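$ run holo --ligand "zinc ion" --emit C-alpha cells
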Amino acid sequence: MSDNLFSAIDAKRDDIIALAQDLIRIPTLNPPGENYRLICEYLEKRLSGKGFEVELIRAHGTPGDSEKYPRWNVVARKEGAHKGECVHFNSHIDVVEVGKGWTTDPFGGELKDGKIYGRGACDMKGGLAASIVAAEAFLEIHPDFAGAIEISGTGDEESGGYGGVAYLAEKGFFSPARVQHVIIPEPLHKDRICLGHRGVWWAELETHGHIAHGSMPFLGDCAVRHMGAVMNEMEESLFPALAQKTTEMPVVPEGARQSTMNINSIHGGEPQQDPDFTGLPAPCVPDSCKMVIDRRFLIEENIDDVQQEVKDVLEKVASEREDFKYDLREMHRVLPSMTEKSAPVVETVSKAIEEIMGKVPEYVVSPGTYDQKHIDRIGKLKNCIAYGPGILELAHQPDEYIGVDDMLDSAKVMAQSLTKLLCPK
Ligand SMILES: [Zn+2]
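-- output --
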C-alpha cells in the first residue's frame, strides 16, 4: 500500500510544481495583508474539487483587518468513511516584504534546476502545496479512511497570527474535540521535526530627565546618560547571566540554545527630522530616552523571573544614580511551547521520516515563535509540531526557493503519517 501511495505522489510531480507556482504568483504580502481573499478562493476551488467541505472565515476586527485588507482564512475538512481522529495541516498564506537583491521575479514562480523561486516559496507555500498533494494522494489510495483531514490556509502569521490561527483557535477550530493532530508545514527541513519554540518578552524601558538649554546641561538632567548607565549595567550583569542559561530545548541554530536579548531600538532626545530637512538641531538636554528590548526565553525560565531580571538592572542603577527615574512597560509576551517527544503526532511523523528518508529525524525547536503558540495556548491542543520542506535559512531572504524533490519527499512523509493515523488495521 505504501508503494502505491509513494508512486501516486511521484506521479503528481507536475501538479505539485504548478500548485506551488500558482500560490507564489498570488502576492500575499503582509503587511499590509494583500490578496488573502484571492488565495483563499484559489484553495477553496482546489479542495472543494477533491471533496473537502470548505469554509472562508474573515477575522473581523483583528489587527490590520479592514475593508481594504480583510483578514480572510480558509479551512477545508474531508470526513472519512468511519469515525476516527482528525489530522490538521495548517499553513500561513502570508509572505513578508520582497526586499532587495533578487535575481528572479519574486512573484514569478520560476522553475530552474528543480527549484521554484519566489517570495514565500520556502516560507511556506511549498509546504502548503506538499500538504495538499499529500492529502490528495492519500485520498486516492485510502478513500475508506477513518477520521478526518483538515487543511487550513491562515493569514498574518508573519505579524503574530492574530487575524489567522489565533482567531480560528478562539472560534474553536483547534479545540481538541474537533482536531487531534496538527502539523504546520513550516520550512524546517524534510528530515527534522520541530517541537516548539522559545518564549518572547518585549518591553519598553524609558528613562526620564529634565529639559534645559544644551549650553547649561547642569540645569537639566540627561535621560540619555541615564540610559547609558542602564546599558552598562546590562553589559556587566544581564548579558553574561543570560549566556549562562542552558536548556533542554534543542533550539536551532545552536547560538539560540540559551537565553538571548536584543536591544531592538533606542531613542532619546529631539525627534528625528525627515531626511530632506536641512536645518540644525536645537540645543536641548533630552528629558526622555526609550529602549525596546526583545528577550527570548527558555522553557526552564519563568516569565516573572525574566521580567524581574530587567527590573533588577533598573533598581541597581536607581540605587547608584541620583534622580534616576524609569518606566518599564510590557509590549508583548508569548510563553515557550514544546510538544513532548512521546506525543502521538511526533512519534508518527518520526516513524514516517525513518521509513522514507532512512534516517532517524532530528528534533529541533525554533528560536522564534510561530503559530503553534496559539494552538497550544488558545486551542489547548498540545499534540502539534512543525514539519515541512525547505531550508529555514532561506526564509525571508532574496531568491528564496523550494526544491521540488523536497516537496515530494515531505509530501510522502505527510501522506504516510496520515496512513498511520487514519487507517486502523
Ligand atoms: Zn513561516
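-- notes --
The chain has a mean pLDDT of 96.
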